[in-house]
């Protein structure tokens, strides 16, 4: 049982990574002038979409929380709507936190918001898929001794790593790299 | 006894740090050796005949004089573009109209009409661009080094050979008027002098008008050979308004008129020199080495033609020190001994009508004299010290011998000289430039041994802090022996070192003495620590900092090693602080202290969750965290840009209100500032009232009630005066200036008296004696006259009964003198922190006054932020009742980080041009006269205000969790169902012990204070260690003098201020503790009586 779970975990993560790689290459087939550095905003949107889609598909296919009861269609719809609201809420609250952390308030608001969206994609979406719109369960998973299954364990690790990675990404900002994107930010 | 030993131990650790800092500084910030040799007329700089044309002429020294008189007009901070001609040859483009452009039109006219008489140069200034260093360079021709930058206030007489000295020894009459810095630099050198005070940068006109009063009469009287006029108006205008203010145009036009007037009065044997000593930044400051600061204007004019060619389109760039040898030779004087400038050869060519060959020869002879002088200087200097690099020196000597031989050969065989002359000139110039470059590089050379020693000492001190902070809370920490042995050994080492030096008759170096004492006291401590404690424990316990905190600390330290990060530190610090805050919140959640356990325990698993229930709900900690982030972000709006980042714009809110133009906005801002002041006051009073200390009848609380509002009133009134002083009608000027002198002094005096009161009677409690005392008060409204109704009877009869009861009880107690007298003392639970908060508020008000008005908002945020942080930290620190008490590392780190963040948000930057010099005038609008320590103190207090406040407030980190205990208890004791029980319970049990828990375990209390002090010193210490390491590793970095050295100096001074503040804060807690003890003793005695 456990080995099986670990195998499935591995495949899901590989798929996620693969989808990110795909999001770099596929759009260049359809879009002109697409590159990560030049049109980074578009890429962020696409990447976020890809990862969300992969997460959803995997959730539907793998169904790690098999114990959940069967429910009616209206239940599912309200659940889905709730998930959407949660996702938006997390985007906005991340945006607020970024601004509190020092992102400019008015300039570059779109960039900041897209950053919030991509971070939400890597943190909130897996939580929503795995735990559903259930804040108490989230709080449980992200506290000591709160993890009950290997899926939750993986969720904990990936989510915390996403936050730490986003945090680390802020560190090289002051370095004086003469990159075009940095010049743009400076302007 | 133990109190004293805690303080002494901390002082000893501070001494170790100071010794390390001093040793490192002495190796890092080397001063140039100042040679006292002098050039003289009789002694030519080198072998060989005296140069061409000087033989047989009277008054000629090394060279025949070309001008008998010089007028030197020094316009302080005359940037090059202020004097640059504005060409209007592009007709379509409208000329850029900035207040400082094109105002010196007489220069342009002269350059166009008399191209062979005048020349404009862009003179390249060596940093530091402070006036005194520039004056030194402009008279000695040398290179004042970095360390001199600090002594701008206390200028001293120049000991090196200089132009003024040469002039006076040649019997020339030097008349000076202007900036009184010259008085200190050249005491008694002038035949006639008119000095005007230079320090008051707000005064644009006194110096200039004073000069103008004397300039033309002196010139017409003819009793002078060299006339120096040093105008300050432009510089002061830059400091006060910046170059973009209309006032600058006025000032420059005035200077233009001065130049015009001088040109009209010049005689044929006189040279006019108009020079700026340095430039200014776009804010009007100077001191650093940005392009705008180091480019100054230099303009030469002679009524006779001296230049062989017309001026080039773009003015030539020359080093500023070139003026020194040029002027010396033009006036027929020896070049000052230590000069490293290169003569401006153009001026020696002899006018437009001279022969090309003879003019080139004249140039070569001037250059050769100059080269001989520089070579002699290098020879003497390298014999005196080992500063100069031997290899380069050797190369230069070879170059010089070759050039000199060529020159001699040229003199002897005039045939074919025309071809070789240019090469000789080029060789001589090459030598002079090489020598100058070598000197510039070598005078920034370091003593690596001292730097390594200082760094090692700093590292060792940090290690001691870490070790002792772990050891201090373990039982049986041997205070006295541990302290006495190292101190004794230190003294022994110092005496031995001094004796050794005495026997071999070397000069005693205080820095080395301190280092020896530090090392010899450090080693026995380490040995004792190892023997007594360390060997029993695994090494892992020595490094107790938790992982995430360690990571954040490492990032903080890594910041010091990159110039980009040091420049961006103002933004990186709030980011790190925010990370700390979120880390604290997340950690609280992770530890399960935020949520009720039923949410966390899985019913399926059935495990019992956390042993101690959460003390707060999750929303509470989250609110604190978000509030803190918001405060940090808001404080970040008061951001001053470092000069390196051109795209960044400093916050306009940092400037004083007086510089604002709009009346309405000014009034609004003034209102906001006063509101911030009132809010600060109200917050402190509210806090004191919440814990009840405000009710105490003790003098400090009376002061808080009445003195603090008075201080706020004084501050507000001073701001009103300062922001509107320029608009005051002339009749009120005297009154306004008087009031702006008295008010800040009154506020500072009030604060000092408040602190004195606090030290005198720090125990702010309200004592109510007698058990029945509260009940006697329950007698209700008095009733007079006979009762008329049943209701009246119902009311009166119990009253009478109660009254009689009281009477009897009172009589009984009086007869039974041994009866138990109970005393109810209130607010004992917050007695320590009440004293701390009062002291911090009293400290904050004078510091607030030293800043610009709108910084008061930052001070309000500072108090709010530290309040929230203390609450957040207290939520995570469990109160262990019997002790030992500890303050966790994250608390101390966050506190230190917040101090740094506040340093930046109060508008400071760790560079010298960013120092708020205005602070020196608060309370002293007329300047200080000759006093130097007071302005230095005021400016220092302004710069390191946040370091001081946070260091003094450091003990609050220990006290706060005990304060918060009352909240937790109150909340828990009022569940809805148990209200009846709570009422039944006697009042005494309900009262939480709070800070009295600390008093119950004094041993642990002192150990915790010591540990807190050591931890704070450790955090500050590793910062200074990182700065020292960065400065020593990157000592050849391009940015070392611009970024790393100033950063190190600011960190070092900040460390000293912080450590003193920390000692004061802990001493205050000790004083309160002593007072509480004596209060208890008195109470005990009273009870026994």
Automatic annotation (TrEMBL), chain A:
Main subcellular localization, coarse class?
A: endoplasmic reticulum
InterPro entries, sorted: GPI_biosynthesis_protein_Pig-F
Record keywords, A-Z = Endoplasmic reticulum, GPI-anchor biosynthesis, Membrane, Transmembrane, Transmembrane helix
Indicate yes or no for the key word Membrane: yes
Tell me the pathway: Glycolipid biosynthesis; glycosylphosphatidylinositol-anchor biosynthesis
- Cell compartment(s), UniProt: Endoplasmic reticulum membrane
User: What are its GO biological-process terms?
Assistant: GPI anchor biosynthetic process
Tell me yes or no: is Transmembrane helix among this UniProt entry's keywords. Answer: yes
Q: Where are the transmembrane segments?
A: 9-29, 41-62, 83-101, 113-135
The record's annotation in Pfam families points to: PIG-F (PF06699)
Topological relation to the membrane, as annotated:
Multi-pass membrane protein
Which domain of life, per UniProt?
Eukaryota
Q: Provide a GO CC annotation, any one.
A: endoplasmic reticulum membrane
UniProt name for this protein = Phosphatidylinositol glycan anchor biosynthesis class F
Annotated organism of origin: Homo sapiens (Human)
Q: What is the lineage of its organism?
A: Eukaryota, Metazoa, Chordata, Craniata, Vertebrata
């Amino acid at each position: 049982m456990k080995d099986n779970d670990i195998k499935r975990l591995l495949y899901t993560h590989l798929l996620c990574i693969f989808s990110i790689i795909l999001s770099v290459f596929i759009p260049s087939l359809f879009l002109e002038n697409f590159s990560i550095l030049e049109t980074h905003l578009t890429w962020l949107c696409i990447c976020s979409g890809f990862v969300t889609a992969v997460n959803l598909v995997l959730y539907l296919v793998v169904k790690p929380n098999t114990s959940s009861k069967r429910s009616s269609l209206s239940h599912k719809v309200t659940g889905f709507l709730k998930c959407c609201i949660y996702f938006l809420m997390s985007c906005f609250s991340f945006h607020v936190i970024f601004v509190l952390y020092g992102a400019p308030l008015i300039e570059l608001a779109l960039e900041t918001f897209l950053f919030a969206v991509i971070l939400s994609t890597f943190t909130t979406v897996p939580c929503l898929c795995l735990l559903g719109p259930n804040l108490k369960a989230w709080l449980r998973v992200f506290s000591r001794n709160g993890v009950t299954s290997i899926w939750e364990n993986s969720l904990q690790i990936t989510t915390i790593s996403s936050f730490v990675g986003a945090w680390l990404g802020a560190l090289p900002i002051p370095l004086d790299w003469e990159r075009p994107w940095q010049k743009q930010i400076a302007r | 006894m133990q109190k004293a030993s805690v303080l002494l131990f901390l002082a000893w650790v501070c001494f170790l740090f100071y010794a390390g800092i001093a040793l490192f500084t002495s190796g890092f910030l080397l001063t140039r050796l100042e040679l006292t040799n002098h050039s003289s007329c009789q002694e030519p700089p080198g072998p060989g005949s005296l140069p061409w044309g000087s033989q047989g002429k009277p008054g000629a020294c090394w060279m025949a004089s070309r001008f008998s008189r010089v007028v030197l007009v020094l316009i302080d901070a005359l940037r090059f573009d202020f004097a640059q001609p504005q060409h209007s040859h592009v007709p379509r483009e409208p000329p850029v109209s900035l207040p400082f452009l094109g105002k010196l039109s007489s220069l342009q006219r002269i350059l166009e009409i008399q191209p062979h008489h005048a020349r404009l140069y862009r003179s390249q200034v060596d940093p530091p661009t402070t006036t005194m260093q520039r004056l030194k360079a402009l008279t000695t021709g040398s290179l004042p080094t970095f360390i001199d930058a600090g002594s701008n206030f206390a200028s001293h007489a120049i000991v090196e050979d200089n132009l003024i000295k040469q002039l006076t020894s040649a019997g020339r009459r030097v008349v000076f008027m202007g900036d009184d810095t010259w008085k200190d630099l050249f005491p008694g050198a002038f035949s006639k002098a008119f000095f005007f005070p230079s320090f008051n940068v707000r005064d644009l006109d006194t110096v200039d008008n004073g000069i103008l009063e004397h300039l033309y009469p002196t010139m017409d009287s003819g009793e002078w050979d060299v006339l120096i006029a040093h105008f300050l108006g432009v510089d002061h205008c830059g400091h006060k308004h910046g170059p973009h203010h209309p006032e600058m145009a006025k000032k420059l036009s005035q200077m233009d008129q001065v130049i015009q007037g001088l040109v009209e009065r010049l005689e044929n044997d006189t040279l006019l020199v108009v020079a700026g000593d340095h430039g200014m930044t776009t804010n009007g400051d100077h001191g650093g080495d940005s392009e705008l600061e180091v480019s100054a204007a230099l303009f030469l004019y002679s009524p006779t033609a001296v230049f062989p060619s017309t001026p080039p389109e773009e003015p030539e760039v020359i080093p500023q020190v070139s003026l020194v040898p040029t002027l010396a030779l033009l006036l027929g004087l020896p070049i000052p001994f230590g000069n490293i400038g290169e003569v401006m050869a153009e001026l020696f060519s002899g006018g437009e009508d001279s022969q090309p060959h003879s003019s080139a020869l004249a140039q070569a002879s001037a250059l050769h004299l100059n080269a001989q002088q520089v070579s002699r200087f290098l020879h003497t200097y390298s014999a005196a010290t080992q500063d100069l690099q031997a290899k380069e020196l050797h190369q230069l000597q070879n170059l010089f011998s070759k050039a000199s031989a060529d020159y001699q050969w040229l003199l002897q065989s005039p045939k074919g000289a025309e071809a070789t002359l240019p090469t000789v000139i080029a060789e001589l110039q090459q030598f002079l430039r090489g020598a100058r470059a070598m000197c510039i590089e070598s005078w920034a050379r370091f003593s690596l041994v001292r730097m390594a020693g200082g760094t090692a000492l700093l590292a060792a001190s940090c290690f001691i802090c870490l070790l002792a902070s772990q050891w201090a809370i373990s039982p049986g920490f041997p205070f006295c022996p541990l302290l006495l042995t190292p101190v004794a050994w230190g003294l022994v080492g110092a005496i031995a070192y001094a004796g050794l030096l005495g026997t071999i008759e070397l000069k005693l170096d205080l820095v080395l003495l301190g280092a020896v004492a530090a090392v010899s006291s450090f080693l026995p401590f380490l040995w004792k620590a190892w023997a007594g404690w360390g060997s029993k424990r695994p090494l892992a316990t020595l490094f107790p900092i938790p992982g995430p905190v360690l990571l954040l600390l490492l990032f903080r330290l890594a910041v010091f090693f990159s110039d980009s990060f040091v420049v961006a530190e103002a933004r990186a610090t709030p980011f790190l602080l925010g990370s700390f805050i979120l880390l604290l919140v997340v950690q609280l959640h992770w530890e399960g202290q935020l949520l009720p356990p039923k949410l966390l325990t899985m019913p399926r698993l059935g495990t019992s969750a956390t042993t101690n229930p959460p003390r707060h709900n999750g929303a509470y900690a989250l609110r604190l965290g978000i509030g803190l982030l918001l405060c940090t972000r808001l404080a970040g709006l008061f951001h001053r840009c470092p000069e390196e980042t051109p795209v960044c714009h400093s916050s306009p809110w940092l400037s004083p209100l007086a510089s604002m133009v709009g009346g309405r906005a000014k009034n609004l801002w003034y209102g906001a500032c006063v509101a911030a002041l009132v809010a600060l006051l109200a917050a402190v009073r509210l806090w004191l009232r919440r814990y009840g200390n405000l009710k105490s009848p003790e003098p400090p609380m009376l002061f808080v009630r009445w003195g603090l509002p008075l201080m706020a009133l004084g501050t507000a009134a001073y701001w009103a005066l300062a922001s509107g002083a320029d608009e005051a009608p002339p009749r009120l000027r005297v009154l306004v200036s008087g009031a702006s002198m008295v008010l800040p002094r009154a506020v500072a005096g009030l604060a000092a008296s408040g602190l004195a009161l606090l030290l005198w009677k720090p125990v702010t409690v309200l004592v109510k004696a007698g058990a029945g005392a509260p009940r006697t008060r329950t007698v209700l409204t008095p009733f007079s006259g006979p009762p008329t109704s049943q209701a009246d009877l119902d009311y009166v009869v119990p009253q009478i009964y109660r009254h009689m009861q009281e009477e009897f009880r009172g009589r009984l107690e009086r007869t039974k003198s041994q009866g138990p007298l109970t005393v109810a003392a209130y607010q004992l639970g917050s007695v320590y922190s009440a004293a701390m908060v009062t002291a911090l508020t009293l400290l904050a008000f004078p510091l607030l006054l030293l800043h610009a008005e709108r910084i008061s908002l930052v001070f309000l945020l500072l108090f709010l932020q530290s309040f929230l942080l203390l609450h957040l930290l207290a939520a995570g620190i469990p109160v262990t009742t019997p002790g030992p008490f500890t303050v966790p590392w994250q608390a101390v780190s966050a506190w230190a980080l917040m101090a740094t963040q506040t340093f930046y948000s109060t508008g400071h930057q760790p560079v010298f041009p960013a120092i708020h010099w205005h602070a020196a005038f608060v309370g002293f609008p007329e300047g200080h006269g000759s006093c130097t320590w007071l302005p230095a103190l005021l400016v220092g207090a302004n710069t390191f205000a946040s370091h001081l406040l946070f260091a003094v407030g450091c003990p609050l980190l220990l006290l706060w969790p005990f304060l918060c205990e009352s909240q937790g208890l109150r909340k828990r004791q009022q569940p809805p169902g148990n209200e009846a029980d709570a009422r039944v319970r006697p009042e005494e049990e309900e009262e939480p012990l709070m800070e009295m828990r600390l008093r119950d375990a004094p041993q642990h209390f002192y150990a915790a204070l010591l540990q807190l002090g050591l931890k704070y010193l450790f955090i500050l210490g590793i910062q200074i260690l990182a700065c020292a390491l960065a400065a020593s590793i990157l000592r050849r970095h391009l940015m070392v003098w611009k970024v790393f050295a100033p950063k190190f100096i600011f960190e070092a001074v900040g460390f000293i201020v912080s450590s003193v503040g920390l000692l004061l804060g802990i001493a205050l807690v000790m004083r309160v503790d002593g007072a509480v003890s004596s209060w208890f003793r008195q109470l005990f005695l009273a009870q026994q009586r």
